[in-house]
Amino acid sequence: MFEEASPDLTDEQRMILDGANRFVTEICPFEKRREATKAGVTLDRTVWGQMAELGWFGLGLSEEAGGFGGTLEDVALIAETLGRGQVLEPFTMCAVFPARLLVGIGGQTDLIEKIVSGEKLVAVAHSEPDARGDVTRIAVTASPEGGGFRLDGLKSLVVGGDHADVLLVTARLPDGSLGLFRLARHSESVTTEGTRLADWTSGLDLRFTSAIAERIASGDAMAHALAAARDEAVTMLCAECVGAMDGTIQVTAPYISERRQFGVPLSSFQALQHRMADMAADLTIARSAVLRALSFLGAPSAERAAQVAGCKALVQRLGRWTTQQGIQLHGGYGITEEYQVGQYHKRLLVTDAMFGSRDVNLSRYTGHMLSRMMEAAQ
After folding, report:
1. Which of 17, 92, 184, 218 could form a disulfide with 179 if both were Cys (CB 3.0 to 4.6 A apart)?
2. What keywords appear on the UniProt entry (predicted)?
């Protein structure tokens, strides 16, 4: 999660970054993405398998848990590179999020190993249509049924869900506690409706009608594991957004140097030089915010959640502004489906809808900081 020339990168991180850059350039160039979206492809299982072969899905997980070691900073390097490369495959939502969640609850080594190897694609069905960005509001219910549980309710925006082999579903138990349930995507009594999102990735809406599922965790421990995994996933999404900001600048700077108006390059106009400088400054601030969030992932839950929420609110604001400037500096060319810069902005729009909007996350962050100030004043 550093600039490529940063002296703070370790030798191992430079290798990870070099490998991720080669992957984007050789396996997932923008031209391939463009052709895939024209064909309606939102996830390529061959590409997913290649990502698994590189060991990315096990990065940041201990060997005891079924991973390959490494740190979350290493994972963020990959996330940023994939965001810069506009890779369609949902690395954060279908690899990082479910794997970290399963590690947190424990006892799911077999499924973790299948995620790490790429054998199984797992999606977490957590978001709900009536939650209004509040990730703690869970209305799907789970009732005992024979040796399992019966799920009823709606889940929305399950990214990668239409390609998943396994669904991990959060639901409320009769006593009001939270549970995590496992079932196959093609289970009976599960109605699905796929949606192509603005950035050409896919989301799935699920309706459970007495769907039988296996409970794999519940109670306070499960709720804590979910909150931790969610914060880690949000941080990786923010890293992807930083990659999108960086990509916007990398595409825009050469364009305004080559595009001529009134007989001179656009880059010769001081106002546009200042605009590009502001974009670069915002990129640095956003990258620093993600690094700060990464440093808090091991903090107590309340502080961790607040810092991650603050990171998402800030990165979304800076990211949307930066990508909007990229579009404006390209003129009408910037909003076409065939060109990269508009796709970066659409990615920011989609990530803003995940795990609460920037306004919801800003409210969460400011509420926590206000509480701390009031405690300190007493």
Report:
1. 218
2. FAD, Flavoprotein, Oxidoreductase
